[in-house]
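Minutes, project check-in
Item: structure for the 142-residue chain
Input as provided by the requester:
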Amino acid sequence: MRILIVLLLLSASFTHAHAQDDKDKKAILSLLHTQTQQWNRGNIKEFMNGYWNNDSLMFIGKAGVTYGYSNTLNHYLSNYGDTTKMGKLFFDIIKIKKLSSEYYWVLGKWFLKRSIGDIGGHYTLLFRKINNQWVIIADHTS
């Protein structure tokens, strides 16, 4: 009887943990979907809501490392200052990996369909759950 109770408790715990993992993945995918929508509306400031609004935010791109939310926003505004440069954004998620209850890692491809020439590449994102919200704390885009 004790073994049955232990097995039931373990099963319930596993089921709860799996449900939380699914909830976290859905929240991260929803955030990325919202970012895509905001980008495609030409709204970089709303796109940035997916990032951690903190001086420790890290963005790594072809120009090197940029630290801080404001600096990352300014980077986007200077490189994609109008809808012609922004084009239409598409994400292709390759892998989402749970690192802990507080961190997820995402690997994907990005693509901008633009009248001035299409561009694209890959990205890795580190998400952290802060104040019960998933945010990007590090972005390496190439």
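Outcome recorded: The longest helix spans residues 2-40.
No further action items on this chain.
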